[in-house]
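Changelog entry: the Helix-turn-helix transcriptional regulator record was regenerated in this release. Current contents:
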Amino acid sequence: MSREEKLFVRDFGLHLRALREERNLSQTKLEAIAGLSKNQVWRIENSEVNTTISNLVLLAKALDVKIEELFEFRR
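Regenerated structure tokens:
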């Protein structure tokens, strides 16, 4: 992964954390609502993984946002 891609994944994770915290959800609770595997949210928020499109759909539904809103962060 290029440096630019790594920065994007990092910024995405930080934005996901902010959205989750705005809704007073723990990582475990968000995983349960979204149907994601254990520690998946932690891994996304901490730039450990470049998540899949299907996970984005699940996260958007669980957070009650449009998929586009997952990408509304400053770079």
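The CA atoms of residues 21 and 44 lie 14 Å apart.
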